[in-house]
Amino acid sequence: MLSVPIETLVEDLQLEVLYKDDCKYINISTSDVNRPGLQLAGFFDYFAYERIQVIGRVEMTYLMSIDVKTRNERLNDYFKYPIPCVIVSRGMDIPTELMDIAQTYKRPLFRTHKSTTQFINRTMNYLESVLAPQITRHGVLVDVYGVGILLMGDSGIGKSETALELVKRGHRLVADDAVEIRRVTDNRLIGEAPDLIKYFMEVRGIGIIDIRAMYGAGAIINTKSIDLVIALEIWDNNKVYDRLGLVEESMDILDVTLPKITIPVRPGRNLAIIVEVAAMNFRLKNSGYHAAQELNQRLENIIEQKQ
Can you give the residue ranges of the HPr kinase/phosphorylase C-terminal domain (predicted)? Predict the structure, then answer.
């Protein structure tokens, strides 16, 4: 199971450390966040103690409204659970009892100056991103007319050259050679380049080129959703290729099913234009227009009229 060390969380979310014992064994493994209003009121059934705990203005106001004895009892009951950390929002002052009991049970205590809702939204988005299942695939990811296209195929088939031509035509490169893919929702994949090779491309015969330095910042994009897979393969005269587009292929990556197109490669075919057409046709299909089905319907109508 993927997890985020608490030290990384503090650094990435820019949290103020109020109390932190040895935290190297504390890891966050869920993107959900808990606001302990019910727990501070003494109700612990179904308490999600494994989540990050965020105390906002409502919880703090309630905590300070009860008498000292009850407050200590509730905080003791609360901190007995193995919570990963407590984060106080809005830069609020920390009651002495809260600090003392956190130290007693050795629970990390942090503070942020962001509003509660803003901080929770940012934290959940951050955790969903870093905890998302991920895989690295050999290929090239490009943004063509807003469609994230993952070019796949054997080494030397022409993926990088196709992407380079697309960049020249005004489209954007995300990753060349290796694509890190994350599943951010049940049906959405995000791709990006590994930090080491970001913005670089290998062109056989020339070597490594820097797309950002050569074509400008408008030629690259850091991340992009993967909408379509295009598989390039050497043209096989013995293989029957789909000429109408009625047969729709698919490919599963991280349990997400993506539409797939297989494009045979041989001298004389302009792959960049074919990829552009595939992207535009994909957008038309998503808007409800399917050219192959439209032609097929016309043929059926003609046959019915003749009969």
Answer: 131-298
Which of 71, 159, 182, 183 is labelled catalytic? 159
Residues 214-264: tens digit of each pLDDT: 999 999 999 999 999 999 999 888 887 777 777 789 999 999 999 999 999
Tell me the whole-structure pTM to 2 decimals. 0.76
Pairwise CA distance, residues 40 & 51, whole Å: 16
Domains and CATH numbers, the chain: 4-130 (3.40.1390.20), 134-297 (3.40.50.300)
pLDDT score of 2: 79
Contact of 265 with 236, CB cutoff 8 Å = no
H helix intervals, the chain: 6-12, 37-40, 57-65, 68-79, 96-104, 116-130, 159-168, 211-215, 271-286, 291-306
Query: If you write DSSP's letter for every residue of 268-303 in order, what string do you get?
Result: T--HHHHHHHHHHHHHHHHTT--HHHHHHHHHHHHH
Q: Which residues are annotated as a binding site for Mg(2+)?
A: 160, 202
pLDDT at 1 over 70: no
Q: What radius of gyration do the chain's Cα atoms show?
A: 27
How do residues 92-149 score in pLDDT, each as one tens digit? 999 999 999 999 999 999 999 999 999 999 999 999 888 989 999 999 999 999 999 9
Q: Is 243 a catalytic residue?
A: yes
SS3 state of residue 241: coil
- 138 catalytic? Reply is yes
